[in-house]
Design goal:
Blueprint: H1 3-22, E1 31-33, E2 37-44, E3 47-57, E4 60-63, E5 67-76, H2 106-111, E6 123-127, E7 131-135, E8 138-144, E9 148-156, E10 163-172, E11 176-186, E12 193-198, E13 202-208, H3 211-217, E14 219-222, E15 228-229, E16 237-242, E17 247-252, E18 261-262, E19 265-266, E20 274-278, E21 284-290, E22 299-300, E23 305-315, H4 319-330, H5 335-339, H6 346-358, E24 365-370, E25 373-379, E26 391-393, H7 397-407, H8 410-426, E27 443-445, E28 450-452, E29 458-459, H9 461-478, H10 483-499, E30 509-511, E31 517-518, H11 530-539, H12 542-560, H13 579-594, H14 597-611, E32 624-627, E33 630-633, H15 653-656, H16 664-675, H17 678-689, H18 719-738, E34 743-744, E35 765-767, E36 770-775, E37 781-783, E38 788-795, E39 800-807, E40 813-815, E41 817-820, E42 830-832, E43 846-848, E44 853-855, E45 860-867
Length: 868
C-alpha cells in the first residue's frame, strides 16, 4: 500500500470516528483518564480550555503547570514567500552569515531562512473550541472560523498509556493555503526549563538569543518561532522537559512527513512537516505543523479537507526516554533489521576493499617528490579552498597499518606504508615559530607544493590532534621504536599544550598570516583534548594527561552539559557533525585511564546526544522503488539507521541526505555493553548490516552520501580506508560483546575526522586465555551465506588457527564453511581439530563441513584448527 493511500485511510478513519461521536451527548467538562494520565477540559467564555493535566508518579499524581489547550491555524490567501530573510543582530545591524566563500552551505542557509521558516507568513488564527461531544474514550471538539471548520478528536492510546493521540481535521471555508499547528498544551517558562530538543536540529537547556549560533549550530533553542524541515530531523518529534522534570513530546504519526525517495527519484526537498519549539504566539511549547504553509498539500479549495495525526507523550522522566519511545515504539526502528536481506557479508566486503586500496588506478594513488622525500596519497576530487583540482590526502592511518600488519601484504608493507609515512613526516609545520609542531594541513596541493586546510589559510588545534597526534599515535602502536615519529608526536603535543587556554580550551583556528584567532563566534566544542591523551599513552609524560583532564573538565561543563558541539568540516563552517561521536569515545577513553566517574557519565550523555543524529524515519517497508535500472525494495535504500555528515539548518544532509560511513557503529556496541540500552545496539546494527544497496559491486566501496546510492567512491577514493576501519571496529566490538569479554583484542586510538572507530592488530589479544594475533588471509575462508561474518586469529605458540563466526541476522542461520588450505601460512599445513567435521587427507585443497554450520540469531561460534 502506498504512503498516499495510507494518508487517505487516516482521513477516512478520522471521519468515521467523528461520525460515531458527533451525535453523542454534549458535555461541559470533558475528560480522558487511564492509569497514567488524567486530562480535563473546562468550558469558558473563550471555549474549551485545558484545565487539568495530571501525570501518575508512583502513588501520587503530578500536575503540569501553564495549561492552555489553545489551537492555532495558519492561513494565507496568496502563495507564501520563500525568499530569505534579513537577519539582524541585537543592535539592528544585518548579519552577514555565512561568509561568501562557503559556497556549499549558502543555498541551504538561504532556503532555511525564508519567511515560512521564520514563521512570518500567513494569518495566525488562534482559538479554543466552541463545541464538544464525547463517547467512550474519545472526545471531539469543533470550531468554525471564517476560513475553516475544525474537528479535533482526542483519545488515550490503549498500548502506551502516557500517550494522548489527536487527529485534527480541517475543512476549508475559503480557498487558500492552510497549515495546522499542534495545540499548545502548556506554556513553559523560557528562563527555566530542564532540556529541549528537536532531534538533529536543536538541543539545550536555554533559549539562545544569538540567533545564528542557535539556528545554524543547534546551540540551545532559537529565540524565534522558527519552523524547521523534517529532512534533517532525525526523529519527527519536538521534546521539552520542564523545570519540574516532566517531559512533553509531540510526535507526528508515521506517514505524515516527506518520504525521501518516492518511486524513482529523490524527494528529499519536499516539506510536509514543520517542527518547532516556540510557537507562532511566542510560547515555549513543542509544536508541529502540517502541512507546511505554502508547501505541498497546503492549498485547499473551498470544501476540501486535510487531516493531521499526532500524539503527545507525557512522562515523569527526562528527554531521552521519550525520545527512545518515539524511535522504538512509534517508528519501530527495529523493523529495518527484521526486513533486511544481506547480499554481501562485511567480511567479504573487507576482502574486496583490500583489493581496491592496493590498486593504484582504482584507488587513485599518487606519489610526489616533496623536498627530496617521496610522499604518497590519494586524490581528493572534492572542494578544497584554493586548490586547482590538485588536492591529495590520506584518511585512516590506523586502518592502513592495521591492514598491512594483519595481512602481511607486500604492496602495503613496501609501497603504500613507506610513502604514506613520508607524507605524514612532511605534514608537520617545523619552520614557523608560532605554528612549530602543528599540522601544516590535511591536504597536499601538488601544483603549488604545499599543505593546506580544507577551507582557508588557517590552522586548527584539532587538526594537530587529528593529523599529527592521532595518525602518528596509531602508527606508533605498530612501530613503537620509530624515533622520528615519537619526536614529531612530542613536538605536536607541546604545541597543543602551549595553545591551550588556562580554562582548558582552544581557539577554533588561527590565521596563518596574522596569527590571530579566527571563528571567534564559536568555542572549540570538539574533542581536541584527545591528542593529549594519545601523547600520554605513547610518551608517558603525565603533563599531557593532566592537561587532557583539565580540558575535559572544560568540555564537560561547556559542551556536554549545555549540549553544544562543533564539527570539523571546514567547508560547512564547522556545523556539528561526527565529531560529537568522537567526543563520546574520547571521554570514555579518558575515563579508562583516570577512572573518573564524571567522564564516563559525560561519555554516556554525549553518546545519547549522538543517537539524535541517526535517522529513525520513515518506517521501512517492502514497497518497490527504482534507482536507475535497479528495482529495489524501499527498506534497501532507507535512511533509517544512517547518520549525518552534518544535519541542522546548514549541513549536507539537507540536499544529500545522510552518509554511509558508519564510524559510530562499533562505539555504539561498546555503549550498549556499558549501559544495556538496546537503542545503541539496534542503531549500530542498522548502520552496519542493512546498507548493501549503497555499495558499488565492482569495488566494494560504499557511496559517501545517501543521494549517490551505489555510485561508489566518487570524489572520495580515500574513504575506502575509513570503511575498512569502521567495519573492522564494528566486527571486533561485536566479537567482544558476544563472547562476553572472553575474546578481546587491544584497541588503538580513534580515527581522524569521521568518527570514533578504532584500529586493531598492533598487539596480541586473548581467546579464552590464550594469546593470539589478528590475521586476514584472502580467500582462506568462505561461507555460502552472506549473513555470516568472520574474523581470524593465530596462536603462534600452540600453532592454532581460530575462526570466529558471527551470525549477523535476527534469525537462525546456517552456512557451508570452506577453508582453502592453499591460502594458509606458507610452509604450513592445516588440519581441522573439531569433532563435527569430516576427516580429510592433507592432499585435499579445501576442507568442508559434513553438516552446515548453524548459528543462533546474532550468535557467535569459535572454531580452532591445528596447523603444523
Amino acid at each position: 500500500m502506498s504512503r498516499f493511500t495510507l494518508y487517505s485511510c487516516k482521513i477516512v478513519t478520522s471521519l468515521l470516528v467523528f461520525v460515531s461521536v458527533a451525535y453523542s451527548q454534549k458535555i461541559t467538562s470533558p475528560r480522558l483518564q487511564n492509569k497514567s494520565l488524567q486530562v480535563k477540559w473546562g468550558h469558558s467564555s473563550e471555549g474549551y480550555r485545558l484545565n487539568t493535566l495530571l501525570l501518575k508518579d508512583g502513588l501520587t499524581w503530578r500536575s503540569l503547570s501553564g495549561l492552555l489547550g489553545q489551537y492555532t491555524l495558519l492561513y494565507s490567501a496568496e502563495q507564501p514567500h520563500t525568499y530569505p530573510q534579513v537577519i539582524s543582530d541585537k543592535n539592528g545591524r544585518a548579519v552577514q552569515f555565512p561568509e561568501p566563500e562557503y559556497r556549499y552551505i549558502i543555498p541551504t542557509w538561504k532556503a532555511n531562512t525564508s519567511a515560512v521558516s521564520f514563521n512570518k507568513e500567513g494569518r495566525t488564527i488562534s482559538f479554543y473550541p466552541e463545541h464538544c461531544s464525547a463517547e467512550g474514550n474519545t472526545v471531539v471538539f469543533s470550531k468554525k472560523t471564517e476560513q475553516a471548520a475544525i474537528e479535533a478528536i482526542w483519545r488515550l492510546d490503549t498500548l502506551y498509556t502516557n500517550d494522548l493521540r489527536v487527529t485534527i481535521r480541517l475543512t476549508a471555508q475559503a480557498p487558500g493555503y492552510y497549515s495546522i499547528a499542534t495545540p499548545a498544551l502548556t506554556a513553559n517558562d523560557k528562563k527555566n526549563f530542564e532540556w529541549a530538543c528537536i532531534p538533529g536540529l536543536f538541543q539545550g537547556k536555554t533559549i539562545n538569543n544569538d540567533f545564528v549560533d542557535a539556528y545554524a549550530y543547534g546551540h540551545g533553542i532559537p529565540d524565534k518561532p522558527v519552523v524547521v524541515r523534517e529532512r534533517t530531523a532525525a526523529a519527527l518529534t519536538s521534546i521539552l522537559t520542564n523545570k519540574a522534570g516532566i517531559t512533553l513530546g509531540v510526535t507526528a504519526e508515521p506517514g505524515t512527513a516527506r518520504h525521501p525517495w518516492l518511486q524513482d527519484k529523490s524527494t528529499q526537498s519536499q516539506w510536509l512537516l514543520g517542527l518547532s519549539m516556540i510557537n507562532r504566539n511566542g510560547q515555549l511549547t513543542p509544536t508541529l505543523y502540517h502541512p507546511v504553509l505554502g508547501q505541498e498539500r497546503s492549498f485547499l479549495n473551498k470544501g476540501e479537507s486535510l487531516s493531521f495525526d499526532f500524539r503527545f507523550t507525557i512522562q515523569n522522566e527526562g528527554w531521552y526516554p521519550v525520545y527512545q519511545h518515539v524511535v522504538n515504539d512509534i517508528y519501530h526502528f527495529d523493523q529495518l533489521l527484521h526486513l533486511k536481506q544481506t547480499r554481501q557479508s562485511l567480511s567479504q566486503r573487507t576482502e574486496q576493499l583490500f583489493s581496491y586500496v592496493k590498486n593504484d588506478s582504482t584507488s587513485r594513488w599518487r606519489t610526489f617528490d616533496y623536498k627530496g622525500r617521496w610522499i604518497g596519497a590519494q586524490e581528493y576530487l572534492g572542494g578544497v579552498y584554493g586548490s586547482e583540482k590538485d588536492a591529495v590526502k590520506n584518511a585512516d592511518y590506523g586502518a592502513m597499518w592495521m591492514l598491512a600488519n594483519i595481512t602481511g601484504d607486500s604492496v602495503l608493507l613496501h609501497t603504500r606504508l613507506p610513502q604514506a609515512l613520508n607524507f605524514k613526516l612532511a605534514q608537520q609545520n617545523t619552520t614557523d615559530d608560532f605554528f612549530r609542531g602543528a599540522a601544516a594541513g590535511q591536504y597536499y596541493l601538488y601544483q603549488s607544493k604545499r599543505f593546506t586546510e580544507e577551507w582557508g589559510a588557517y590552522t586548527e588545534p584539532i587538526a594537530t590532534t587529528y593529523y599529527m597526534m592521532l595518525d602518528i599515535g596509531n602508527i606508533l602502536l605498530f612501530e613503537p621504536r620509530h624515533q622520528q615519529l615519537r619526536a614529531e608526536l612530542r613536538l605536536a603535543a607541546d604545541w597543543l599544550l602551549s595553545k591551550m587556554k588556562p580554562e582548558g580550551y582552544w581557539e577554533v583556528a588561527y590565521n596563518n598570516v596574522t596569527k590571530k584567532p579566527m571563528f571567534t563566534d564559536q568555542k572549540d566544542y570538539r574533542p581536541t583534548f584527545y591528542g593529549l591523551l594519545v601523547a600520554y599513552k605513547i610518551l608517558g609524560d603525565k603533563k599531557y594527561l593532566d592537561a587532557a583532564s583539565r580540558a575535559a573538565d572544560w568540555f564537560i561543563k561547556n559542551a556536554v552539559e549545555q549540549g553544544y558541539f562543533l564539527g570539523v568540516c571546514g567547508d560547512a563552517r564547522f556545523a556539528p557533525d561526527f565529531a560529537t561521536a568522537q567526543s563520546a569515545q574520547a571521554l570514555l577513553d579518558l575515563y579508562d585511564i583516570t577512572k573518573d566517574e564524571r567522564l564516563q557519565k559525560a561519555a554516556i550523555t554525549t553518546a545519547r546526544y549522538y543517537t539524535t543524529s541517526i535517522y529513525s524515519h520513515p518506517i521501512p517497508d517492502k514497497s518497490m522503488r527504482k534507482n536507475g535500472a535497479r528495482q529495489l525494495e524501499e527498506w534497501q535504500i532507507s535512511q533509517v539507521g544512517l547518520g549525518f555528515e552534518h544535519g541542522g539548518t546548514l549541513g549536507s544532509a539537507n540536499p544529500s541526505g545522510p552518509i554511509l560511513l558508519a564510524s559510530h557503529a562499533g562505539m555504539f556496541i561498546r555503549f550498549f555493553a556499558l549501559t544495556k540500552d538496546s537503542l545503541f545496539l539496534k542503531m549500530a546494527r542498522a548502520a552496519a548490516l542493512t546498507k548493501d544497496a549503497f555499495v558499488d559491486p565492482a569495488t566494494g566501496v560504499a557511496s559517501y552520501y545517501w543521494s549517490a546510492m551505489n555510485k561508489g567512491a566518487g570524489p572520495f577514493p580515500h574513504h575506502a580506508w575509513w570503511q575498512l576501519g569502521w567495519i573492522t571496529d564494528y566486527l571486533m566490538s561485536e566479537l567482544l560483546l558476544r563472547s562476553q569479554g572472553r575474546i578481546e583484542f587491544p584497541a588503538g586510538f580513534v580515527t581522524p575526522k569521521v568518527g570514533p572507530h578504532k584500529t586493531f592488530g598492533f598487539s596480541s589479544g586473548q581467546v579464552f586465555g590464550k594469546k593470539v594475533d589478528l590475521v586476514l588471509m584472502e580467500n582462506l575462508v568462505s561461507f555460502d551465506n552472506p549473513n555470516i561474518d568472520y574474523l581470524c586469529a593465530l596462536d603462534k605458540t600452540n600453532k592454532k588457527f581460530y575462526l570466529f563466526v558471527l551470525n549477523n541476522d535476527d534469525e537462525m542461520q546456517q552456512a557451508a564453511l570452506k577453508v582453502d588450505t592453499s591460502r594458509f601460512i606458507k610452509g604450513h599445513r592445516l588440519q581441522l581439530k573439531t569433532a563435527a567435521c569430516r576427516s580429510a587427507s592433507a592432499a585435499r585443497i579445501s576442507y568442508s563441513w559434513g553438516d552446515k554450520v548453524k548459528i543462533k540469531p546474532y550468535g557467535l561460534q569459535v572454531f580452532s584448527f591445528q596447523y603444523y
